[in-house]
TrEMBL record:
<keyword id="KW-0949">S-adenosyl-L-methionine</keyword>
<keyword id="KW-0698">rRNA processing</keyword>
<dbReference type="Pfam" id="PF00398">
    <property type="entry name" value="RrnaAD"/>
</dbReference>
<dbReference type="InterPro" id="IPR023165">
    <property type="entry name" value="rRNA_Ade_diMease-like_C"/>
</dbReference>
<dbReference type="InterPro" id="IPR001737">
    <property type="entry name" value="KsgA/Erm"/>
</dbReference>
<dbReference type="InterPro" id="IPR029063">
    <property type="entry name" value="SAM-dependent_MTases_sf"/>
</dbReference>
<dbReference type="GO" id="GO:0052908">
    <property type="term" value="F:16S rRNA (adenine(1518)-N(6)/adenine(1519)-N(6))-dimethyltransferase activity"/>
</dbReference>
<feature type="binding site">
    <location>
        <position position="56"/>
    </location>
    <ligand>
        <name>S-adenosyl-L-methionine</name>
    </ligand>
</feature>
<dbReference type="GO" id="GO:0052910">
    <property type="term" value="F:23S rRNA (adenine(2085)-N(6))-dimethyltransferase activity"/>
</dbReference>
<comment type="function">
    <text>Specifically dimethylates two adjacent adenosines (A1518 and A1519) in the loop of a conserved hairpin near the 3'-end of 16S rRNA in the 30S particle. May play a critical role in biogenesis of 30S subunits.</text>
</comment>
<comment type="similarity">
    <text>Belongs to the class I-like SAM-binding methyltransferase superfamily. rRNA adenine N(6)-methyltransferase family. RsmA subfamily.</text>
</comment>
<dbReference type="GO" id="GO:0005829">
    <property type="term" value="C:cytosol"/>
</dbReference>
<dbReference type="InterPro" id="IPR011530">
    <property type="entry name" value="rRNA_adenine_dimethylase"/>
</dbReference>
<feature type="binding site">
    <location>
        <position position="102"/>
    </location>
    <ligand>
        <name>S-adenosyl-L-methionine</name>
    </ligand>
</feature>
<keyword id="KW-0808">Transferase</keyword>
<dbReference type="InterPro" id="IPR020598">
    <property type="entry name" value="rRNA_Ade_methylase_Trfase_N"/>
</dbReference>
<feature type="domain" description="Ribosomal RNA adenine methylase transferase N-terminal">
    <location>
        <begin position="36"/>
        <end position="212"/>
    </location>
</feature>
């Protein structure tokens, strides 16, 4: 009865034993291919010095493997129905703690202050519920917690947006935000066939390595993120038209915009998707200083 929850037969057996039906509304697609877990653990460089925060353990497929390889696993699961399953099926591990709470409502700074030693290497690992992938990741990285790396399974298209290069159609304000805080790379692509039930999309495992300091230096982060989001507001519009939409209601504001763009040498006729993160930072700092 033990080892490898992540197989088709064992998963089927557990679902039957507890009469569990998966909830699509919670993004419940369970992994049934142990090889994928091995690759996730390798991507996260999980070892006995690593403490892992897992989001959404489900019936424990990834949790089990993490418990074997890591020092400790703290998992957040919103679905209380999974409590008896996780309790019984993972009973042999004494280094797992499951907190039944919505990860978006968790007090992360408090968790970090209470639970972790300064010497712990912390990794966040998850096969994410796809419908809230972006808020979960942004919550973590914006809180600037001492997480070394994130290893997250998500919809392939979202992973592509998070790792896009300037000039490509997937490049947007999300890419710029991720690149500001982390070094992001797609570790590997995951076919839909390794889940029960099968989702309608393929997945990818994304690795985010937290930067010690953000990639670019900005005078004011809130201003910088407002500017990048605003620049991508209407993707088909030029940078000038999008900026005018945010700042340029008056003639003075338009003149300040024109001067600001000129000062940093960026043509207003370009589209936001062609701007590198360094150019967004230069623009934000220029506008912030000149009170645009
Ligand atoms: N880790 C398991 C696996 O790989 O087989 C399950 C992955 S399943 C894609 C996502 C899991 O996240 C489900 O167990 C679901 O109940 C849980 N979940 C959904 N929303 C959540 C939230 N806001 N906070 C914590 N867990 C959540």
């Amino acid at each position: 009865n033990n080892k490898n929850i992540a197989t088709p037969s064992r998963t089927k057996q557990i679902l039957k034993k507890y009469g569990l039906t998966m909830k699509k509304s919670l993004g419940q697609n369970f992994l049934v291919e142990p090889g994928i877990l091995t690759k996730m653990l390798a991507a996260g460089e999980i070892d006995k010095d690593t403490v892992v925060i897992e989001i959404g353990p489900g019936i424990g497929a990834l949790t089990e493997r993490l418990a074997q390889e890591a020092k400790q696993v703290i998992a957040f699961e919103v679905d209380r129905r999974l409590e008896p399953i996780l309790k019984n099926e993972l009973a042999e591990y004494d280094n797992i703690e499951v907190i039944f709470q919505d990860i978006l409502e968790a007090n992360l700074p408090e968790l970090f202050a209470d639970r972790f030693e300064p010497t712990d290497r912390i990794v966040v690992a998850a096969n994410l519920p796809y419908y809230i992938t972006t808020p979960i990741i942004m919550n973590f990285i914006e809180a600037n917690l001492p997480v070394d790396a994130y290893v997250m399974m998500m919809q392939k298209e979202v992973a592509e947006r998070m790792t896009a290069s300037p000039g490509s159609k997937n490049y947007g304000s999300l890419t710029v935000a991720i690149d500001y805080y982390t070094e992001a790379e797609i570790s590997f692509i995951v076919p839909r066939t390794v889940f029960v039930p099968q989702p309608n999309v393929d997945s990818a495992v994304l690795k985010l390595k937290r930067r010690e300091v953000p990639k670019v230096t900005v005078e004011n982060e809130a201003f910088y993120f407002r500017l990048t989001r605003g620049s991508f507001q209407h993707r088909r519009k030029t940078l000038w038209n999008n900026l005018m939409g945010i700042y340029g209601k008056t003639d003075e504001a338009k003149e300040a915009l024109r001067l600001g763009l000129e000062a940093v040498g960026i043509e207003g006729s370009r589209r936001a998707e062609t701007l590198a993160i360094e150019e967004f930072a230069a623009l934000a700092n220029e506008f912030y200083q000149s009170d645009v």
